[in-house]
Write a structure and sequence with these properties.
By secondary structure, the protein is mainly alpha-helical. It has two domains: 31 residues, no CATH class; 37 residues. The protein has four helices and no strands. The protein is elongated, with a radius of gyration of 21 Å. 0% of the residues are buried.
Length: 68
């Protein structure tokens, strides 16, 4: 069965089952790289320390992203 036929079969599922399938597929593609996760954690810790030390100021999400 090719991708097109598989998609046609999946579209017959109820929405909750399709959502579960999509979630499973996305998780199978998103394999975290431990080295990158460690680098981001270190960066987040540096940023939090700088904020707590008063070296940087917070910016409201609305100011960055606009009205939500």
């Amino acid at each position: 069965m090719g991708p097109r036929e598989l998609l046609e079969q999946c579209q017959k599922l109820d929405p909750a089952d399709r959502l579960e399938l999509v979630d499973s597929l996305l998780q199978s593609l998103d394999r975290p790289d431990p080295a990158i996760a460690r680098i981001w954690l270190e960066e987040a810790e540096r940023r939090l320390a700088a904020y707590r030390a008063g070296k940087v100021q917070a910016v409201a999400a609305e100011d960055v992203l606009g009205p939500i």
